[in-house]
Please model this.
Amino acid sequence: MARYGMALDYKSCINCKACESACKEENGILLGADNHRIWVGVNEIEGLFPDLSIGSSNFQPSQCQQCDNAPCQTVCPTNATYYDDNGVVRVNPDQCILCTYCMQACPYDARYVDDRTVTVDKCNFCSDTRLIHGETTTACQATCPTKVRIFGDLDDPESEISQVLRDREHYSLKAHLGTKPKLFYLT
Amino acid sequence: MNLSKLLPYNKHTVKSFFEFERTPLNIFMFLLSIGLFTFMLIGIVIYLLHGHHAYGVTRQHPWGLLIAMYVFFVVSSTGLCIMSSLGHVFNIKAFKIVGKRAIIGAIITITTGFVVIAFEIGHPVRMVIYNILTPGLTSAIWWMGTLYGLYLFFIIMEFFFLNNDNHKYSKIFGLAGLVVGLAAHSNLGAVFGFLVARPIANGVFFPLYFILSAMVTGSYLLFLIYGWRYKMKFPPEVKQSMTTLAQVLGLLLAILMFFEVWRALTAIYGLMPERGDIAIHMITSKNFLIGEVLLGMLIPFVIIVLSKGRAIKLMVYASMTGMVGIFFMRYDLVHDTQLAPMMPLKIREYSLPPGLVEYTPSPTEWMIAIGAIGLSFMMYYAADKFFDLDH
Ligand code: SF4
Ligand code: SF4
Ligand code: SF4
Model:
Protein backbone atom coordinates (compact mmCIF):
# COMPACT_ATOMS: atom_id res chain seq x y z
CA MET A 1 0.00 0.00 0.00
CA ALA A 2 1.10 3.47 -0.78
CA ARG A 3 1.29 6.62 1.26
CA TYR A 4 0.22 9.34 -1.09
CA GLY A 5 1.29 12.94 -0.85
CA MET A 6 1.51 15.97 -3.08
CA ALA A 7 4.29 18.49 -3.59
CA LEU A 8 3.38 21.90 -4.94
CA ASP A 9 5.83 23.97 -6.91
CA TYR A 10 3.61 26.85 -5.98
CA LYS A 11 5.76 29.62 -7.43
CA SER A 12 4.82 28.31 -10.86
CA CYS A 13 1.13 28.75 -10.18
CA ILE A 14 -0.53 31.25 -12.51
CA ASN A 15 -3.94 31.23 -10.80
CA CYS A 16 -5.72 29.83 -13.82
CA LYS A 17 -7.98 27.73 -11.58
CA ALA A 18 -7.87 24.76 -13.94
CA CYS A 19 -7.41 22.57 -10.87
CA GLU A 20 -10.57 23.94 -9.30
CA SER A 21 -12.57 23.22 -12.43
CA ALA A 22 -11.04 19.79 -12.86
CA CYS A 23 -11.87 18.85 -9.29
CA LYS A 24 -15.46 20.01 -9.64
CA GLU A 25 -15.84 18.08 -12.86
CA GLU A 26 -14.11 14.94 -11.63
CA ASN A 27 -15.95 14.68 -8.36
CA GLY A 28 -19.26 16.20 -9.36
CA ILE A 29 -18.95 18.97 -6.79
CA LEU A 30 -22.05 21.13 -6.67
CA LEU A 31 -21.90 24.80 -7.51
CA GLY A 32 -21.81 27.39 -4.75
CA ALA A 33 -19.00 29.25 -3.03
CA ASP A 34 -18.95 26.95 0.00
CA ASN A 35 -18.65 23.80 -2.08
CA HIS A 36 -15.00 23.47 -2.91
CA ARG A 37 -12.31 20.92 -2.18
CA ILE A 38 -9.51 22.92 -3.65
CA TRP A 39 -8.66 26.58 -3.93
CA VAL A 40 -5.98 29.01 -4.97
CA GLY A 41 -4.99 31.46 -2.27
CA VAL A 42 -4.06 34.90 -3.49
CA ASN A 43 -1.44 37.08 -1.87
CA GLU A 44 -2.09 40.66 -2.84
CA ILE A 45 0.78 42.76 -4.11
CA GLU A 46 2.09 44.92 -1.31
CA GLY A 47 3.31 48.47 -1.55
CA LEU A 48 2.35 51.59 -3.53
CA PHE A 49 3.26 52.16 -7.17
CA PRO A 50 6.04 52.35 -8.20
CA ASP A 51 7.48 50.69 -5.09
CA LEU A 52 5.56 47.46 -5.54
CA SER A 53 6.93 44.34 -3.89
CA ILE A 54 6.96 41.76 -6.63
CA GLY A 55 8.00 39.07 -4.18
CA SER A 56 4.86 39.57 -2.15
CA SER A 57 2.61 38.67 -5.04
CA ASN A 58 2.12 34.95 -5.32
CA PHE A 59 -0.48 32.27 -5.43
CA GLN A 60 -0.86 29.46 -3.00
CA PRO A 61 -2.93 26.58 -4.33
CA SER A 62 -4.21 24.34 -1.57
CA GLN A 63 -6.67 21.67 -0.53
CA CYS A 64 -6.96 19.10 2.26
CA GLN A 65 -3.45 18.52 3.57
CA GLN A 66 -4.09 14.78 4.07
CA CYS A 67 -2.63 15.11 7.55
CA ASP A 68 -0.86 12.09 8.98
CA ASN A 69 -2.10 13.26 12.38
CA ALA A 70 -5.45 14.67 11.34
CA PRO A 71 -7.43 16.70 13.88
CA CYS A 72 -10.58 16.08 11.82
CA GLN A 73 -10.14 12.36 12.38
CA THR A 74 -9.50 12.50 16.13
CA VAL A 75 -12.61 14.56 16.80
CA CYS A 76 -15.02 12.49 14.71
CA PRO A 77 -17.48 10.87 17.15
CA THR A 78 -18.47 8.00 14.85
CA ASN A 79 -15.17 7.31 13.07
CA ALA A 80 -16.83 8.41 9.83
CA THR A 81 -13.52 10.10 9.07
CA TYR A 82 -10.78 7.50 8.71
CA TYR A 83 -7.38 6.83 7.18
CA ASP A 84 -7.58 4.48 4.23
CA ASP A 85 -4.87 2.03 3.24
CA ASN A 86 -3.17 4.70 1.17
CA GLY A 87 -2.92 7.06 4.12
CA VAL A 88 -5.64 9.22 2.58
CA VAL A 89 -8.04 10.80 5.06
CA ARG A 90 -11.52 9.86 3.89
CA VAL A 91 -15.13 10.30 4.99
CA ASN A 92 -17.62 7.46 4.97
CA PRO A 93 -20.90 9.22 4.20
CA ASP A 94 -22.94 6.37 5.70
CA GLN A 95 -21.39 7.00 9.09
CA CYS A 96 -21.21 10.78 9.08
CA ILE A 97 -23.82 12.34 11.37
CA LEU A 98 -23.15 15.89 10.15
CA CYS A 99 -22.10 17.22 13.53
CA THR A 100 -19.56 19.37 11.64
CA TYR A 101 -17.06 18.97 14.46
CA CYS A 102 -14.42 18.09 11.86
CA MET A 103 -15.03 21.39 10.06
CA GLN A 104 -14.45 23.06 13.37
CA ALA A 105 -11.27 21.10 14.03
CA CYS A 106 -9.59 21.24 10.61
CA PRO A 107 -6.95 23.99 10.72
CA TYR A 108 -7.09 24.42 6.94
CA ASP A 109 -10.78 25.02 6.21
CA ALA A 110 -10.59 22.02 3.92
CA ARG A 111 -14.03 20.56 4.60
CA TYR A 112 -17.48 21.44 3.39
CA VAL A 113 -20.99 20.02 3.49
CA ASP A 114 -21.87 18.07 0.37
CA ASP A 115 -25.55 18.59 -0.35
CA ARG A 116 -25.78 15.41 -2.39
CA THR A 117 -25.10 13.16 0.57
CA VAL A 118 -25.83 15.76 3.26
CA THR A 119 -22.57 14.86 4.95
CA VAL A 120 -19.18 16.47 5.25
CA ASP A 121 -16.74 15.93 2.42
CA LYS A 122 -13.28 16.98 1.36
CA CYS A 123 -10.47 16.23 -1.06
CA ASN A 124 -9.78 12.50 -1.11
CA PHE A 125 -6.90 12.55 -3.60
CA CYS A 126 -9.43 11.36 -6.19
CA SER A 127 -9.58 7.98 -4.49
CA ASP A 128 -13.07 7.20 -5.75
CA THR A 129 -12.42 8.17 -9.33
CA ARG A 130 -8.78 7.33 -9.94
CA LEU A 131 -6.78 5.58 -7.21
CA ILE A 132 -9.42 2.87 -6.95
CA HIS A 133 -8.83 2.04 -10.63
CA GLY A 134 -5.12 1.81 -10.12
CA GLU A 135 -4.36 5.21 -11.58
CA THR A 136 -1.77 7.22 -9.74
CA THR A 137 -2.75 10.72 -10.79
CA THR A 138 -5.30 13.21 -9.50
CA ALA A 139 -7.53 15.40 -11.60
CA CYS A 140 -6.04 18.64 -10.28
CA GLN A 141 -2.52 17.41 -10.89
CA ALA A 142 -3.17 16.04 -14.38
CA THR A 143 -4.75 19.26 -15.55
CA CYS A 144 -2.25 21.78 -14.21
CA PRO A 145 -0.69 23.59 -17.21
CA THR A 146 2.44 24.71 -15.37
CA LYS A 147 3.03 21.37 -13.62
CA VAL A 148 2.73 22.81 -10.14
CA ARG A 149 1.61 19.49 -8.68
CA ILE A 150 3.67 16.38 -8.15
CA PHE A 151 1.60 13.51 -6.84
CA GLY A 152 2.95 10.18 -5.70
CA ASP A 153 3.92 7.62 -3.10
CA LEU A 154 5.97 9.04 -0.25
CA ASP A 155 7.01 5.54 0.84
CA ASP A 156 8.58 4.78 -2.51
CA PRO A 157 12.07 6.33 -2.52
CA GLU A 158 12.14 6.22 -6.31
CA SER A 159 8.90 8.16 -6.83
CA GLU A 160 9.15 11.63 -8.31
CA ILE A 161 7.71 13.20 -5.18
CA SER A 162 10.20 11.47 -2.89
CA GLN A 163 13.04 12.62 -5.09
CA VAL A 164 11.89 16.20 -5.30
CA LEU A 165 11.37 16.35 -1.54
CA ARG A 166 14.93 15.12 -1.09
CA ASP A 167 16.32 17.63 -3.56
CA ARG A 168 14.42 20.79 -2.79
CA GLU A 169 13.59 22.80 0.26
CA HIS A 170 9.97 22.72 1.20
CA TYR A 171 7.57 23.63 3.96
CA SER A 172 4.11 22.64 5.10
CA LEU A 173 1.24 24.82 6.25
CA LYS A 174 0.72 25.26 9.98
CA ALA A 175 3.22 22.50 10.63
CA HIS A 176 3.61 23.75 14.20
CA LEU A 177 0.21 22.26 15.01
CA GLY A 178 1.66 18.79 14.64
CA THR A 179 -0.80 17.76 11.96
CA LYS A 180 1.98 16.30 9.77
CA PRO A 181 0.54 17.43 6.43
CA LYS A 182 1.26 15.41 3.27
CA LEU A 183 1.05 18.53 1.12
CA PHE A 184 4.45 20.09 0.64
CA TYR A 185 5.26 23.53 -0.72
CA LEU A 186 8.49 23.65 -2.70
CA THR A 187 10.51 26.81 -2.24
CA MET B 1 -48.72 -3.21 37.75
CA ASN B 2 -50.41 -0.01 38.71
CA LEU B 3 -48.46 3.00 37.43
CA SER B 4 -49.53 5.30 40.24
CA LYS B 5 -48.05 2.85 42.76
CA LEU B 6 -44.75 2.66 40.93
CA LEU B 7 -44.57 6.39 40.33
CA PRO B 8 -46.99 8.36 42.48
CA TYR B 9 -48.54 11.16 40.45
CA ASN B 10 -51.58 13.40 40.56
CA LYS B 11 -54.39 12.36 38.29
CA HIS B 12 -55.81 15.00 36.00
CA THR B 13 -58.57 15.39 33.51
CA VAL B 14 -57.86 17.55 30.49
CA LYS B 15 -59.82 20.29 32.17
CA SER B 16 -58.08 20.11 35.52
CA PHE B 17 -54.72 19.92 33.75
CA PHE B 18 -55.29 23.33 32.23
CA GLU B 19 -56.69 24.86 35.38
CA PHE B 20 -54.55 27.50 37.01
CA GLU B 21 -55.10 30.63 38.99
CA ARG B 22 -56.02 33.33 36.46
CA THR B 23 -53.61 36.00 37.61
CA PRO B 24 -52.24 38.35 34.94
CA LEU B 25 -48.76 36.91 35.44
CA ASN B 26 -49.97 33.34 35.10
CA ILE B 27 -51.91 34.13 31.98
CA PHE B 28 -48.92 35.96 30.55
CA MET B 29 -46.65 32.99 31.20
CA PHE B 30 -49.22 30.63 29.76
CA LEU B 31 -49.48 32.59 26.54
CA LEU B 32 -45.73 33.13 26.42
CA SER B 33 -45.04 29.42 26.71
CA ILE B 34 -47.56 28.48 24.05
CA GLY B 35 -46.35 31.28 21.80
CA LEU B 36 -42.69 30.33 22.12
CA PHE B 37 -43.46 26.68 21.58
CA THR B 38 -45.43 27.48 18.43
CA PHE B 39 -42.45 29.44 17.21
CA MET B 40 -40.27 26.44 17.76
CA LEU B 41 -42.62 24.20 15.81
CA ILE B 42 -42.64 26.61 12.89
CA GLY B 43 -38.85 26.74 12.99
CA ILE B 44 -38.67 22.97 13.00
CA VAL B 45 -40.96 22.70 9.98
CA ILE B 46 -38.80 25.18 8.07
CA TYR B 47 -35.70 23.20 9.03
CA LEU B 48 -37.27 19.93 7.92
CA LEU B 49 -38.05 21.48 4.57
CA HIS B 50 -34.74 23.20 3.93
CA GLY B 51 -32.18 21.54 6.19
CA HIS B 52 -29.15 23.54 7.21
CA HIS B 53 -29.84 26.01 4.41
CA ALA B 54 -32.47 27.47 6.71
CA TYR B 55 -29.69 28.37 9.12
CA GLY B 56 -27.12 31.13 8.99
CA VAL B 57 -24.23 28.70 9.45
CA THR B 58 -21.49 28.56 6.84
CA ARG B 59 -18.41 26.60 5.96
CA GLN B 60 -16.26 28.92 8.07
CA HIS B 61 -18.80 29.16 10.87
CA PRO B 62 -20.39 25.73 11.03
CA TRP B 63 -21.68 26.08 14.58
CA GLY B 64 -24.31 28.68 15.29
CA LEU B 65 -27.06 29.69 17.64
CA LEU B 66 -28.43 26.20 18.11
CA ILE B 67 -25.14 24.89 19.43
CA ALA B 68 -25.03 27.87 21.79
CA MET B 69 -28.56 27.10 22.92
CA TYR B 70 -27.76 23.44 23.39
CA VAL B 71 -24.86 24.46 25.59
CA PHE B 72 -27.14 26.89 27.40
CA PHE B 73 -29.64 24.15 28.26
CA VAL B 74 -27.18 21.47 29.28
CA VAL B 75 -25.23 23.94 31.41
CA SER B 76 -28.52 24.77 33.11
CA SER B 77 -29.15 21.10 33.70
CA THR B 78 -25.72 20.36 35.12
CA GLY B 79 -25.93 23.47 37.26
CA LEU B 80 -29.26 22.47 38.76
CA CYS B 81 -27.96 18.97 39.37
CA ILE B 82 -24.83 20.23 41.15
CA MET B 83 -26.73 22.72 43.29
CA SER B 84 -29.38 20.20 44.30
CA SER B 85 -26.80 17.61 45.19
CA LEU B 86 -25.39 20.02 47.77
CA GLY B 87 -28.54 19.32 49.75
CA HIS B 88 -29.53 15.76 49.30
CA VAL B 89 -26.21 14.15 48.42
CA PHE B 90 -23.90 16.21 50.60
CA ASN B 91 -26.46 16.99 53.32
CA ILE B 92 -25.82 20.72 53.46
CA LYS B 93 -28.82 21.88 55.43
CA ALA B 94 -29.62 25.10 53.63
CA PHE B 95 -29.90 23.23 50.32
CA LYS B 96 -32.14 20.46 51.58
CA ILE B 97 -35.29 22.09 50.26
CA VAL B 98 -34.15 22.38 46.66
CA GLY B 99 -34.00 18.64 45.87
CA LYS B 100 -36.98 17.69 43.76
CA ARG B 101 -37.65 20.91 41.90
CA ALA B 102 -34.03 21.20 40.91
CA ILE B 103 -33.87 17.62 39.66
CA ILE B 104 -37.02 17.93 37.59
CA GLY B 105 -35.58 21.20 36.28
CA ALA B 106 -32.38 19.37 35.37
CA ILE B 107 -34.32 16.67 33.53
CA ILE B 108 -36.38 19.24 31.66
CA THR B 109 -33.47 21.44 30.62
CA ILE B 110 -31.33 18.59 29.35
CA THR B 111 -34.26 17.13 27.46
CA THR B 112 -34.82 20.51 25.83
CA GLY B 113 -31.11 20.65 25.05
CA PHE B 114 -31.34 17.27 23.32
CA VAL B 115 -34.35 18.45 21.33
CA VAL B 116 -32.43 21.53 20.18
CA ILE B 117 -29.33 19.58 19.19
CA ALA B 118 -31.47 17.08 17.29
CA PHE B 119 -32.22 19.88 14.85
CA GLU B 120 -28.61 20.91 14.55
CA ILE B 121 -26.97 17.49 14.08
CA GLY B 122 -27.73 16.51 10.51
CA HIS B 123 -28.45 12.84 11.24
CA PRO B 124 -29.47 12.29 14.87
CA VAL B 125 -30.73 8.75 14.34
CA ARG B 126 -27.54 7.73 12.58
CA MET B 127 -25.71 9.29 15.52
CA VAL B 128 -27.34 6.94 18.01
CA ILE B 129 -26.51 3.94 15.83
CA TYR B 130 -22.88 4.73 15.04
CA ASN B 131 -22.15 6.10 18.50
CA ILE B 132 -22.51 2.49 19.56
CA LEU B 133 -21.27 0.62 16.47
CA THR B 134 -18.13 2.64 15.74
CA PRO B 135 -17.45 4.82 18.77
CA GLY B 136 -14.87 7.56 18.23
CA LEU B 137 -13.16 7.30 21.59
CA THR B 138 -10.83 10.20 20.94
CA SER B 139 -13.77 12.52 20.27
CA ALA B 140 -14.94 14.87 23.01
CA ILE B 141 -18.35 14.93 21.34
CA TRP B 142 -18.61 11.17 21.69
CA TRP B 143 -17.80 11.30 25.41
CA MET B 144 -19.98 14.32 26.01
CA GLY B 145 -22.98 12.79 24.25
CA THR B 146 -22.61 9.35 25.75
CA LEU B 147 -22.05 10.61 29.27
CA TYR B 148 -24.98 13.02 28.99
CA GLY B 149 -27.20 10.15 27.93
CA LEU B 150 -26.10 8.22 31.01
CA TYR B 151 -26.53 11.31 33.13
CA LEU B 152 -30.12 11.74 31.98
CA PHE B 153 -30.84 8.14 32.93
CA PHE B 154 -29.33 8.63 36.41
CA ILE B 155 -31.20 11.83 37.20
CA ILE B 156 -34.48 10.33 36.00
CA MET B 157 -33.87 7.43 38.40
CA GLU B 158 -32.96 9.92 41.10
CA PHE B 159 -36.24 11.73 40.60
CA PHE B 160 -38.12 8.47 40.50
CA PHE B 161 -36.79 7.44 43.89
CA LEU B 162 -37.16 10.92 45.37
CA ASN B 163 -40.77 10.81 44.29
CA ASN B 164 -41.15 7.46 46.03
CA ASP B 165 -39.50 8.82 49.16
CA ASN B 166 -36.76 6.25 48.79
CA HIS B 167 -33.89 8.39 49.97
CA LYS B 168 -31.30 5.68 49.97
CA TYR B 169 -31.58 4.99 46.25
CA SER B 170 -32.23 8.58 45.31
CA LYS B 171 -28.96 9.46 46.98
CA ILE B 172 -27.06 6.73 45.14
CA PHE B 173 -28.46 7.78 41.78
CA GLY B 174 -28.01 11.41 42.75
CA LEU B 175 -24.33 10.84 43.36
CA ALA B 176 -23.98 8.85 40.15
CA GLY B 177 -25.79 11.60 38.24
CA LEU B 178 -23.54 14.22 39.77
CA VAL B 179 -20.29 12.43 38.94
CA VAL B 180 -21.32 11.52 35.40
CA GLY B 181 -22.84 14.97 34.90
CA LEU B 182 -19.59 16.66 35.92
CA ALA B 183 -17.65 14.39 33.57
CA ALA B 184 -20.07 15.02 30.72
CA HIS B 185 -20.04 18.72 31.28
CA SER B 186 -16.30 19.14 31.43
CA ASN B 187 -16.19 17.08 28.24
CA LEU B 188 -18.48 19.63 26.66
CA GLY B 189 -15.88 22.21 27.64
CA ALA B 190 -13.27 19.96 26.07
CA VAL B 191 -15.21 19.91 22.79
CA PHE B 192 -13.92 23.47 22.51
CA GLY B 193 -10.78 23.11 24.61
CA PHE B 194 -9.42 20.31 22.40
CA LEU B 195 -9.49 22.43 19.24
CA VAL B 196 -5.78 22.71 18.51
CA ALA B 197 -6.59 24.71 15.40
CA ARG B 198 -8.23 27.49 17.41
CA PRO B 199 -5.86 29.07 19.92
CA ILE B 200 -8.61 31.18 21.47
CA ALA B 201 -10.45 28.07 22.67
CA ASN B 202 -7.62 25.59 23.00
CA GLY B 203 -6.53 24.76 26.53
CA VAL B 204 -7.74 23.92 29.98
CA PHE B 205 -9.96 26.96 30.49
CA PHE B 206 -13.27 25.72 29.08
CA PRO B 207 -13.49 22.35 30.88
CA LEU B 208 -13.05 24.13 34.22
CA TYR B 209 -15.05 27.23 33.36
CA PHE B 210 -18.00 25.11 32.26
CA ILE B 211 -18.36 23.58 35.71
CA LEU B 212 -18.07 26.94 37.45
CA SER B 213 -20.49 28.70 35.15
CA ALA B 214 -22.87 25.74 35.48
CA MET B 215 -23.01 26.35 39.23
CA VAL B 216 -23.74 30.03 38.64
CA THR B 217 -26.45 29.13 36.13
CA GLY B 218 -27.93 26.59 38.54
CA SER B 219 -28.11 29.23 41.26
CA TYR B 220 -29.87 31.74 39.00
CA LEU B 221 -32.36 29.10 37.97
CA LEU B 222 -33.06 28.15 41.57
CA PHE B 223 -33.91 31.77 42.32
CA LEU B 224 -36.25 31.83 39.36
CA ILE B 225 -37.84 28.49 40.18
CA TYR B 226 -38.42 29.44 43.81
CA GLY B 227 -39.46 32.99 43.06
CA TRP B 228 -42.10 31.53 40.78
CA ARG B 229 -43.09 28.77 43.16
CA TYR B 230 -43.75 31.13 46.09
CA LYS B 231 -44.80 34.10 43.96
CA MET B 232 -42.27 36.19 45.88
CA LYS B 233 -43.86 35.45 49.28
CA PHE B 234 -41.20 33.24 50.74
CA PRO B 235 -41.83 31.26 53.93
CA PRO B 236 -39.09 31.81 56.56
CA GLU B 237 -37.22 28.54 56.00
CA VAL B 238 -37.15 29.11 52.26
CA LYS B 239 -35.96 32.65 52.85
CA GLN B 240 -33.13 31.28 54.96
CA SER B 241 -32.11 28.84 52.25
CA MET B 242 -32.32 31.48 49.53
CA THR B 243 -30.10 33.81 51.54
CA THR B 244 -27.48 31.11 51.86
CA LEU B 245 -27.85 30.42 48.13
CA ALA B 246 -27.29 34.12 47.40
CA GLN B 247 -24.13 34.12 49.50
CA VAL B 248 -22.79 31.03 47.75
CA LEU B 249 -23.68 32.63 44.42
CA GLY B 250 -21.77 35.76 45.41
CA LEU B 251 -18.68 33.67 46.01
CA LEU B 252 -19.15 31.77 42.75
CA LEU B 253 -19.51 35.02 40.82
CA ALA B 254 -16.36 36.38 42.42
CA ILE B 255 -14.45 33.28 41.35
CA LEU B 256 -15.98 33.49 37.87
CA MET B 257 -14.86 37.09 37.45
CA PHE B 258 -11.41 36.15 38.67
CA PHE B 259 -11.31 33.37 36.03
CA GLU B 260 -12.45 35.74 33.31
CA VAL B 261 -9.89 38.38 34.15
CA TRP B 262 -7.03 35.91 33.98
CA ARG B 263 -8.37 34.32 30.86
CA ALA B 264 -8.47 37.69 29.13
CA LEU B 265 -5.02 38.70 30.35
CA THR B 266 -3.30 35.48 29.36
CA ALA B 267 -5.06 35.52 25.98
CA ILE B 268 -4.06 39.07 25.17
CA TYR B 269 -0.55 39.04 26.60
CA GLY B 270 2.00 38.80 23.80
CA LEU B 271 -0.69 39.31 21.16
CA MET B 272 -0.30 35.87 19.68
CA PRO B 273 -2.16 35.78 16.34
CA GLU B 274 -5.63 34.21 16.41
CA ARG B 275 -5.62 34.56 20.18
CA GLY B 276 -4.60 38.04 21.30
CA ASP B 277 -6.43 39.83 18.51
CA ILE B 278 -9.52 37.69 18.98
CA ALA B 279 -9.49 38.23 22.74
CA ILE B 280 -9.34 41.99 22.29
CA HIS B 281 -12.21 41.83 19.84
CA MET B 282 -14.10 39.67 22.32
CA ILE B 283 -13.76 41.77 25.42
CA THR B 284 -14.50 45.01 23.63
CA SER B 285 -17.72 43.67 22.08
CA LYS B 286 -21.12 44.77 23.34
CA ASN B 287 -22.10 41.15 23.81
CA PHE B 288 -19.34 40.76 26.32
CA LEU B 289 -19.50 44.09 28.11
CA ILE B 290 -23.26 44.47 28.37
CA GLY B 291 -24.39 40.86 28.08
CA GLU B 292 -21.81 38.82 29.89
CA VAL B 293 -20.31 41.29 32.33
CA LEU B 294 -23.12 43.66 33.23
CA LEU B 295 -26.17 41.42 33.01
CA GLY B 296 -24.52 38.10 33.65
CA MET B 297 -22.23 38.94 36.52
CA LEU B 298 -22.13 42.53 37.79
CA ILE B 299 -25.81 43.27 38.49
CA PRO B 300 -26.41 40.11 40.53
CA PHE B 301 -23.03 40.43 42.22
CA VAL B 302 -23.57 44.02 43.31
CA ILE B 303 -27.01 43.19 44.70
CA ILE B 304 -25.61 40.28 46.67
CA VAL B 305 -22.72 42.26 48.06
CA LEU B 306 -24.78 45.32 49.00
CA SER B 307 -27.55 43.31 50.63
CA LYS B 308 -25.26 40.62 52.07
CA GLY B 309 -27.46 38.14 50.22
CA ARG B 310 -30.66 39.14 51.94
CA ALA B 311 -32.38 40.93 49.05
CA ILE B 312 -34.01 37.76 47.79
CA LYS B 313 -36.78 39.33 45.76
CA LEU B 314 -34.30 41.56 44.03
CA MET B 315 -32.16 38.49 43.38
CA VAL B 316 -35.04 36.84 41.57
CA TYR B 317 -35.11 39.78 39.17
CA ALA B 318 -31.34 39.85 38.99
CA SER B 319 -31.43 36.18 38.09
CA MET B 320 -33.40 37.08 34.99
CA THR B 321 -30.68 39.45 33.86
CA GLY B 322 -28.26 36.78 35.00
CA MET B 323 -29.80 34.21 32.65
CA VAL B 324 -29.74 36.68 29.78
CA GLY B 325 -26.06 37.16 30.56
CA ILE B 326 -25.55 33.40 30.62
CA PHE B 327 -27.13 33.22 27.18
CA PHE B 328 -24.58 35.73 25.91
CA MET B 329 -21.79 33.71 27.51
CA ARG B 330 -22.88 30.62 25.56
CA TYR B 331 -23.37 32.50 22.33
CA ASP B 332 -20.03 34.27 22.57
CA LEU B 333 -18.24 31.09 23.49
CA VAL B 334 -19.44 29.42 20.29
CA HIS B 335 -19.08 32.48 18.07
CA ASP B 336 -15.72 33.75 19.31
CA THR B 337 -14.19 30.31 18.87
CA GLN B 338 -14.88 30.60 15.14
CA LEU B 339 -13.96 34.26 14.63
CA ALA B 340 -10.51 33.70 13.17
CA PRO B 341 -10.56 32.50 9.54
CA MET B 342 -8.53 29.32 9.23
CA MET B 343 -6.98 30.02 5.81
CA PRO B 344 -6.59 33.79 5.43
CA LEU B 345 -5.04 33.38 1.99
CA LYS B 346 -8.42 32.45 0.60
CA ILE B 347 -9.58 36.04 1.12
CA ARG B 348 -10.04 37.11 -2.47
CA GLU B 349 -11.09 33.87 -3.96
CA TYR B 350 -14.17 33.06 -2.02
CA SER B 351 -15.03 36.53 -0.79
CA LEU B 352 -14.29 35.65 2.78
CA PRO B 353 -14.73 38.69 4.95
CA PRO B 354 -11.33 40.34 5.03
CA GLY B 355 -11.23 40.44 8.80
CA LEU B 356 -13.08 38.07 11.05
CA VAL B 357 -15.63 35.46 10.14
CA GLU B 358 -19.14 36.79 10.46
CA TYR B 359 -22.28 35.03 11.46
CA THR B 360 -25.86 36.16 11.99
CA PRO B 361 -28.41 33.64 13.19
CA SER B 362 -31.26 33.14 10.72
CA PRO B 363 -34.91 33.61 11.75
CA THR B 364 -35.32 29.84 11.74
CA GLU B 365 -32.48 29.45 14.19
CA TRP B 366 -33.99 32.08 16.45
CA MET B 367 -37.37 30.39 16.31
CA ILE B 368 -36.02 27.02 17.37
CA ALA B 369 -33.55 28.41 19.91
CA ILE B 370 -35.80 30.81 21.74
CA GLY B 371 -38.88 28.68 21.15
CA ALA B 372 -37.20 25.88 23.07
CA ILE B 373 -37.55 27.98 26.23
CA GLY B 374 -41.32 27.64 25.76
CA LEU B 375 -40.89 23.89 25.58
CA SER B 376 -39.06 23.99 28.92
CA PHE B 377 -41.81 26.09 30.49
CA MET B 378 -44.47 23.69 29.27
CA MET B 379 -42.65 20.66 30.57
CA TYR B 380 -42.19 22.36 33.92
CA TYR B 381 -45.88 23.23 34.09
CA ALA B 382 -46.79 19.62 33.39
CA ALA B 383 -44.31 18.29 35.94
CA ASP B 384 -45.67 20.67 38.54
CA LYS B 385 -49.18 19.42 37.80
CA PHE B 386 -48.37 15.74 37.90
CA PHE B 387 -45.89 15.54 40.74
CA ASP B 388 -45.66 16.87 44.24
CA LEU B 389 -42.41 18.80 43.90
CA ASP B 390 -42.26 20.26 47.38
CA HIS B 391 -41.92 17.27 49.67
S1 SF4 C 1 -6.39 19.19 6.17
FE1 SF4 C 1 -8.17 19.21 7.48
S2 SF4 C 1 -9.58 17.80 6.49
FE2 SF4 C 1 -7.59 17.39 5.62
S3 SF4 C 1 -6.75 15.72 6.88
FE3 SF4 C 1 -5.99 17.66 7.74
S4 SF4 C 1 -7.45 18.16 9.32
FE4 SF4 C 1 -8.43 16.64 8.01
S1 SF4 D 1 -19.45 15.82 10.54
FE1 SF4 D 1 -19.26 13.65 10.00
S2 SF4 D 1 -17.10 13.31 9.49
FE2 SF4 D 1 -17.27 15.27 10.57
S3 SF4 D 1 -16.85 14.81 12.73
FE3 SF4 D 1 -19.09 14.75 12.46
S4 SF4 D 1 -19.52 12.61 11.97
FE4 SF4 D 1 -17.33 12.88 11.67
S1 SF4 E 1 -6.84 15.43 -5.54
FE1 SF4 E 1 -8.82 15.14 -6.57
S2 SF4 E 1 -10.31 15.52 -4.96
FE2 SF4 E 1 -8.40 16.39 -4.24
S3 SF4 E 1 -8.41 18.53 -4.88
FE3 SF4 E 1 -7.39 17.39 -6.49
S4 SF4 E 1 -8.99 16.87 -7.95
FE4 SF4 E 1 -10.02 17.46 -6.03
Q: What stands out?
A: The CA atoms of residues 68 and 95 of chain A lie 21 Å apart.
